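So, is this right?
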Amino acid sequence: MTECQIWLNGEQSSCPVGLKLPELLQWLGYKPQLVVVEYNEELLIRSCWADQLIKAGDRLEVVTIVGGG
């Protein structure tokens, strides 16, 4: 499996080549419906996620939505 280097929450990480954003989130163990994603310093609208191919050098900030009272 070929991998590429990305930045995830400020730390360098690797992931398989050819993943789209929802696949990457699942591969990383996130539940896509419970996160907000900043992609290369821009908030990425959820409706665009399925088309967003992850490339080497991309910078992602993933914030988990936590419920509670």
User: Anything to note?
Assistant: The longest helix spans residues 21-27. The domain at 3-64 is CATH 3.10.20.30 (Ubiquitin-like (UB roll)). The chain has one domain: 3-64.
